[in-house]
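Protein: Nitroreductase
Species: Propionispora vibrioides
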Amino acid sequence: MTEEIFECMRESKTVRNFRQDPITDESLAKLIEAACWAPSAGNLQPWFFYVVKNEKVKQRLAAVCTDQPQVAEAPVAIVVMADPAKSNEKYGERGAQLYCLQDTAAAAENLLLAAESMGLATCWVGSFDEPQVQKLVEAPPRLRAVAIICVGYSDQQISSPKERLRVAEVTKIIH
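Structure follows.
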């Protein structure tokens, strides 16, 4: 691994205050491409992305999120969806209940890291009324909302590096 990816992980921050500078379609396409390079069980790629730029839809999305005004304030909100049925076809209930969510979370993380590397700021929002989000983006019933990723340019002070538990605190090596 290169030091660049580690630096990207260390430097990434959750941002809740965004400038209103637009995000280009080219940049958004690169973010989604990065998300699509995530690993997935059986290479099923059980994800779908709704890229929301519409101000009214972002306002409605923010209204069904728990105290998350940045959903409306960010230039773009990306609703990351999982397709449990796709994973169920190959892996049964475990695929539908777990693998598709793991796969989709990996895709969301790729998107976050790509945004950081491109100088974009993000905020992962997980607290929302799932059926309402699904309805607002007009997703088919088979899809499940996993996250909303706010994307834009930061309009807040750069904070100190995030604190993390030491490796020894979260690791047990079994020989």
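Remarks: Helices lie at 3-11, 25-36, 55-63, 70-73, 84-117, 130-136.
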